[in-house]
Each structure stands twice: as C-alpha cells, then as structure tokens.
Amino acid sequence: MTDHSRRPRHAFWLKAAGTAAAFTVCAATAATAVPAPASSPVSTPSAAAVTITYDDSRAGGWEAAVAAGVAAWNDNVGNVQLVEAAPGARAEIQIVATSGWPQANLGPVRPGGQVRVELGSQAVDEGHDKTRIVAHEIGHSLGLPDTKPGPCSQLMSGSSAGTACANAVPDAAERSRVESAYGGGAASRVPADGHLVVDAP
To answer: Is 137 assigned a catalytic role?
Structure first.
C-alpha cells in the first residue's frame, strides 16, 4: 500500500498548479477565439438562367466597351446571362461596328433566335459614352424599348440623357422587366418584337 503521507508537499502543489494553468490557457483560447467570417454572397445566375450568346468578332474598336456592357447586365440580372460564343459558332446576338447611329432589333431574343446590334460610331463622334451605348443596345436585345426622353439613371433613355451621361447600369425597373421576360427559363417564349430600333437623337 502506498504511503501518501511521505510524498513531498511540493509535488501536490506542482500538480495542482499545472492543472490550473492548463485550464486557464484553454479558457483564454475559448474566450478569444473568433469565428471564421462567413463568405460574402456571390451573385450567381440561377440554375434556370437562360444563356444567350453574343459574337463581337466584327465589333473592332469596341471590345472593351462590349466586355463592360455585357458585365453591366450579367452583374445585375440572374434569369439571363450573356456568354461570348465560341469562334465560328452561331450566336443569338450579333454585335457589329458601323459608321451610322447605334441600332438593334428589339427582343427578348431566345436561344436559337438571332438579333443584330450595330454599334454606330456616329454617336461616339457626338460625344456619347461607348459602354453606355453597348449596354443600351443589348437592353433592346433583351426586350427593352427606349424610354426617351429620360434621366441618366435610366439606361434605356439613351442619347436623350445627354453626352455627359456615362451610366451603363440598368435601373430597378429595367432589371425587373428583363428578369420577368426570362423568368420562365428557356421554356418561356415571350414573342420577340424584332423590329429595328434606331437610337439617333
């Protein structure tokens, strides 16, 4: 039988002190631990989003504006997403640089359909912003008519907002209308108007 009475007292003190220190470290760690921040929500298209392809291979000189105009729509709507067509593939939106005024066929264009967007340099010569022009013409392809005259905050007010306006982002009403047009996915077949909208002042 072990005789505890003969064990040095400092052995018990050291054991108790070690236990207390371990508890203190664990408690401090628990008190100062900060949960990992939740990841920021990323805007992604819904599973039912309609994919519309575009071809800007004939839009020489407008490449940066086309990329920015497409992003303005993809970042603000979820029911439809614009994707650059593979080289040689048929695209729903044909984007072409021209020397006249910008113009486009009125959509909403559907997968398998086709509309034409003309990015007229005449508007640029008059001082209008290239990215706004692209986003505005794509808006026609997605089914939005002009809202002229209108404020700069309305993308579809186009040239009526003046040459100082560089807003290329659709407003809430414009986003809602496009979301509604493509809300039923590819199965939703809202007839496209198709007539040519010329955006001269």
So the answer is: yes
